[in-house]
């Protein structure tokens, strides 16, 4: 059975934009759509018992589903209203989905039932891609010839899942992929005889980085021969280089490795920066 694309909704403008994005992506990929709302009973509403509050929530989600079904009659849509902790509910739903799609305010916390560190927790806990969509997202951005921009680092295996997602998405949209690799000068103490030989063989630092990007892209070019690919190698901060490249993208794809500390999960500076500052939707894909 095909995994659905799951959209988390809470009635906010951002989450409805995410639902719209998820529905279009589900149609393109021929996948079912699951519409999910996580809620908590509010005892302070003395005039409304649990069943009444559940009814209010269900009515709102039903209306959103009705709108999607009218817009995409060929799409198989299901809905769930689940009571409990949002982080657990969303992470569990993501594990069963092709991807999880959520609304994002940008330049700050994720809205609705995802506030502050909770967004990072959901992204860090799931092994599936999570896409964050802003309220201003419009279908026209997908039809304007804009690229799917993806960040690549390390060797071919390090970013295989990130590149897979980018190429699959571009193929479904008839779009091009712009693969971005940023590099910086290493500190003197990082040099070793082995690394110096690799750099000499490649002809220097920048040619070495270009060769590394080409090698990482080779299997995906072969697998998706009809997807146009542009390679972008630039010296600078990975976050800034990727953010600049994504300025006119229809989607930015970035990898992440979750880091844990005493104060919670941290998804990495590049993913964190893209989620807060990119104008386009951002897909965060866990590394294998």
From TrEMBL:
Gene3D superfamilies: HUPs (3.40.50.620)
Transmembrane segments: none
SUPFAM superfamilies: Adenine nucleotide alpha hydrolases-like
Pfam families: Usp
Sequence ranges assigned to domain UspA in this UniProt record: 1-134, 153-286
The organism's place on the tree of life at top rank: Bacteria
Signal peptide, first to last residue: none
Similarity comment: Belongs to the universal stress protein A family.
Identification of the protein by name: Nucleotide-binding universal stress UspA family protein
Organism lineage string: Bacteria, Bacillati, Actinomycetota, Actinomycetes, Kitasatosporales
């Amino acid at each position: 059975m095909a995994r659905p694309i799951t959209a988390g909704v809470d009635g906010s403008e951002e989450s409805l934009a995410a639902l719209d994005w998820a529905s279009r992506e589900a149609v393109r990929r021929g996948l079912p759509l699951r519409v999910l709302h996580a809620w908590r009973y509010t005892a302070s509403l003395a005039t409304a018992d649990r069943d009444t509050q559940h009814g209010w929530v269900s009515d709102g989600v039903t209306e959103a589903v009705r709108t999607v079904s009218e817009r995409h009659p060929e799409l198989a849509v299901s809905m769930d209203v689940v009571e409990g902790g949002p982080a657990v509910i969303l992470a569990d739903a993501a594990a069963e989905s092709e991807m999880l799609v959520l609304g994002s305010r940008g330049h700050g916390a994720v809205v609705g039932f995802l506030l502050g560190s909770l967004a990072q927790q959901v992204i860090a806990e799931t092994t599936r891609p999570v896409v964050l969509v802003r309220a201003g997202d419009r279908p026209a951005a997908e039809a304007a010839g804009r690229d799917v921009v993806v960040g690549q680092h390390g060797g071919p295996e390090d970013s295989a899942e990130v590149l897979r997602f980018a190429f699959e998405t571009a193929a479904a949209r008839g779009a091009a992929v712009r693969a971005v690799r940023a590099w910086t000068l290493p500190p003197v103490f990082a040099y070793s005889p082995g690394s110096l030989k690799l750099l000499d063989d490649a002809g220097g630092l920048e040619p070495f980085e270009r060769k590394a990007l080409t090698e990482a892209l080779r299997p995906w070019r072969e697998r998706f021969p009809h997807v146009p690919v542009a390679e972008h190698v630039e010296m600078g901060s990975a976050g800034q280089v990727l953010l600049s490249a994504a300025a006119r993208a229809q989607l930015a794809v970035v990898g992440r490795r979750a880091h844990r500390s005493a104060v919670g999960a941290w998804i990495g500076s590049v993913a964190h920066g893209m989620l807060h500052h990119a104008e386009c939707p951002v897909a965060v894909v866990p590394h294998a």
